[in-house]
């Protein structure tokens, strides 16, 4: 399953992802940001599950299953550039800021902000067509909600 997904993801001209694959790709990107500092904290895993539960109207069981699938995919996934490209192709521009907000929620889940996490978000935001300013505003909005 993941080999086929990754093959499609890394193709020179990948097809637009279907809804299921887009969910998996976004969740795997959230896992990637959670792992960026070298520690995948249980609070980060729980935050990812809350994000996907709300975003995709999943049950807690479905959210946990999606997160676990995403963990496996993220471990096998190519560099962030190609991975994020698939999300960009699947998510309309006006909704990409929500992807950055979700990433900031994961970063803030453990109460610590790390330079590696900042680096991954900066790269992902750029690849998604989100400016540094808009990413900073998203971070501030998510901090205010925490």
From TrEMBL:
InterPro entries: DjlA_N, TerB-like. Gene3D superfamilies: TerB-like. It holds the Pfam family TerB. Residues 23-140 form the Co-chaperone DjlA N-terminal domain. This is Uncharacterized conserved protein, tellurite resistance protein B (TerB) family. The lineage of its organism: Bacteria, Pseudomonadati, Pseudomonadota, Alphaproteobacteria, Rhodobacterales.
């Amino acid at each position: 399953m993941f080999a086929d997904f990754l093959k499609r993801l890394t193709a020179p001209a990948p097809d637009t992802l279907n809804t299921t694959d887009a969910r998996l790709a976004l969740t795997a990107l959230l896992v990637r940001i959670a792992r960026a500092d070298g520690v995948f904290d249980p609070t980060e895993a729980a935050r990812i599950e809350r994000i996907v539960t709300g975003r995709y109207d999943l049950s807690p069981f479905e959210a946990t299953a999606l997160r676990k699938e995403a963990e496996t995919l993220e471990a096998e996934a190519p560099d962030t550039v190609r991975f994020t490209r698939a999300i960009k192709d699947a998510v309309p521009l006006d909704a990409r800021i929500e992807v950055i907000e979700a990433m900031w929620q994961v970063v803030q889940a453990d109460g610590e902000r790390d330079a590696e996490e900042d680096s991954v978000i900066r790269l992902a935001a750029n690849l998604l067509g989100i400016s540094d300013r808009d990413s900073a505003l998203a971070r501030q909005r998510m901090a205010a909600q925490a």
